[in-house]
Amino acid sequence: MKNKQIITALSTATMLLLNTIAFSQAKELEKFTRQVQEVIKKAAPATVFLADYDPQKKILTNELFSGVVVSKDGLILTAAHVCFPNKTYIVIFSDGTERTATGLGRMQSVDAAIMKINEPGNYPSAPIGWSSSLKVNEPCISIAYPGSFNTNTINTPPAKPKRQVVRLGYVAEPLTRRGTRIRTTCLMEPGDSGGPVFDMYGRVVGLHSSINMPVTDNMEIPVDLYRKYWTALNKPEDYKAMPAEDLVPVDSLRMGEKNFIGIAKLDSTFGGLKSKYTDYSLLVKSVNKGKPLSILGTAVSLDGLAAKNLLKGKGFLVTKNSMLGDSIQVQLPDGKMVAGKIISRDNNSDLALVQIDTKLKNTIDIYSLKADSITNDQLGTLLLSAEPAKTGVVSVLASAEFPLKNFSSIGYLGGGTANKNGKLVMNMVQPNTAAMEFLKVDDEITSIDGQKLSTPDDFLKAIQKHKPGEVAVVNGSRDNNAFSYNITLRLRPPANSTHIASRFEGGRSERYDGFWDTFVHDAVIKPSECGGPVFDSNGRFIGINMARYSRVSSIATAARGVQKFVETSARSLSNTQI
């Protein structure tokens, strides 16, 4: 009896200790999240989208990059490989305010450059910090305009504000062996060049310069180089030799202690959350035309959405529709494989609801879910992408909720048209495409899906109404003989980019856009690791991963989009609404 009392007392003490640790960890995460969000609120207005501009023709060129305003009168720090003295640039702030700027000093040897806004004003600005006081594993925040979100850039100003994307990382090397770069884990790609990296005080400590193949190799220009050559860089000159140096003052905070959670500690602090939510993510295997597919699924509850007798002994999960084939098998948390059955699938949202004949213990309660829209006020929220039998992936909320327009998810024909002798004819048929199977150059195209066509734009719009796998009915004539072809459109082939940013591990998802109610985060996941749930640091379900979008970004459908899909899909089980 005495031993039992001792064991009970020890168990109680252990539980109290674990609860105290969990509470302490939650408080640390909450404090860290607030710090990140405060930096973003201060720094984001000063981070600008930049583009090369021809003032005579009044058009933007293809040189799109980033920068940060560091003075109220409009001095902008950026990278030398995208900025040249006396050239004109368009500056677009996050609120859409548009100005022009002129390039000042440039030092290619260290990749540092400055430009100045031409129009007088009192502009949002960020303080300049000291790269010399950075420490290994110190957290840092990147805000910039990655090029993967600029596919619809228009050439003629005024241009719409581009998508500003937040990333969280840490300082891997305060100074590389060359002594002219900082290495951070803030993910970077083309378009980010010249964009700022901030410390946890909201000060600019580096500017994006280049990347290596590993996603942890992101090279930043130390801001101390701008301080060192400040006088020279404020003159419109392209320096071939090192100019005179300025005296760099000592960081006023350097003598004190930087009191921030290190990334290593942050990862361990997330440990409890990682293990708690792993069972909400399930492995889903299937086969499509003989090709094995693997994706994750999110366990959901349909209680309150369909008749109870139809839910008895059943389990349900939501996954990525375009990665779901036939002969579905779902791996349970205990490792057992069970057959899955598709209840509902939706091409527009790219979501599918799968049923299994096993009740799942840990599920997202869709009926009770309070899914509000994700706003800019939440930027910097720490997130966890849960994975089965794994620790999961920590990331940061990088954007507010928005619709991601179609590009990859538009049906692809592989041909183009032109007007010739009063007719709309095929002027291009690419090899190994759906067009090549049916059409030839100089074929007249009269209609698609019964819609009469007269211009190449009409042709393009008619094709773009379809998604990959859908059939377009193409009518026309060849050598005065009428034809009508039912052509199954294909997935757009990936661009043959040789840039190192396109060659990250796992690559881009085949379907990476065309989603509604989406948000961006910087989780490093593979396409086969999409479909799983995303939680915030409080354990709140906020969405499902839908695609690895680029080197720097993953895309998730927000909780309210998932909720709408599941509520609609539940009607497929029963006409009775409860």
Automatic annotation (TrEMBL):
Keywords: Hydrolase, Protease, Signal
Signal sequence extent: 1-26
Single GO term (MF): peptidase activity
GO biological process entries: proteolysis
Domain PDZ per the UniProt entry, residue ranges: 411-488
Family membership noted in the UniProt record: Belongs to the peptidase S1C family.
Name under which the protein is recorded: Trypsin-like peptidase domain-containing protein
